[in-house]
Amino acid sequence: MAAGLTRRHGSAAAAALRRELHHLRGDRGDRLLITLVPLLMLAVMAWLFSASVMREVPIAVVDLDNSAQSRQLARMLDASAGVSVASQPATLQQAQQQLRRLEVFAVVLVPRDATRQALRGQQATVFSFYNATYLTTGQSAARDIADAVAAWNARLLAERIGLQVGPGRLRAAPIAVQSDILYNPARSYELFLLPLIFPALLSLLTALACACAVGREVRDGTVRRWLGHAPWAALLGKLLPYIVAGSLWSLLGLFYVSFVRGDGVAGSLVLLVLAQPLLHAASAAYAVLFVGLTRDMGTALSTVGLTLGTALAFSGATFPVIDAPLFTRVWNLLLPLTAYVKLQTQQLFVGAPWNVSLWPLLTLLLMVAVACAVGGWRLMRSSPAPAGAP
pTM to 2 decimals? Predict the structure, then answer.
């Protein structure tokens, strides 16, 4: 009897799979959604972030000191790879006007007599102002400005102050801070954003495709015929093409980020490969859940866009959820992308032990089970099985 049930469920899944593949062969729009559209998205995103890091962010230098040393600082700033001295206005007010017109993103102010005070052994200050409304650009400029000023300060200390007061009187600061960048030493925006954007976009496409596939049966009134006597097997057969397609595109994106643009996988490649179908299965399960709850294709597609479409913002990878409102923290935990991004970070960049990433894997499995169970049950309740079903 068990063997008979297994054969029946296997044939039901195969029949549903064949039925869905036949539909994809005849429906160009649905076929493009899992073939050409993901490829174009991957290619466009890869091209947009191929520069990796910001270069030559325009800044203004206001040199009120007007000394040989301050002019040297301006040259060092302009030679920095991250910033470019776009203008040298005479006053801070003129620089602020350029900042408001977005001609520059940061202003460096060298006060009058700054180098003279430094040569006398007094404390001198160089001011840096950056536009925080463009937070990423402004902070990038501020970091490069700080690096250039630190290099200028060291040069001034060795070439002028040391000769003036004598090398024996130079003393290092009693306590220093050494800050080391881990896991993304080049501060590459490509390696920060692409591993997040690729799975976010591809999982959204998978969910949309599955919502279309299941919602189409509800719209056309063919749920009973599709589910037949083995509804769970039929559901698996319908979702399988989209899960497989999404997983293959995700593997391509992972390969590009890891081996074409990155330095390989720091942790377990097996866990990363295993996480791809689980992410897309969870996305497909959420689509089933939304179709089952709403019993309307259009509403389900809108719900997919409102939930999985905002997953990147609520995943905790771009905007922190630490000490966020309760809704934000709960929403973060309910999203498949959150669990996947945690596993990806642990295994792709950090090189964490494999057992640390078991919890995100189990979380994705739990999401698949719960969402599919609730959504599938709602579909079966709305369309009872044909007469004679066990």
Answer: 0.85
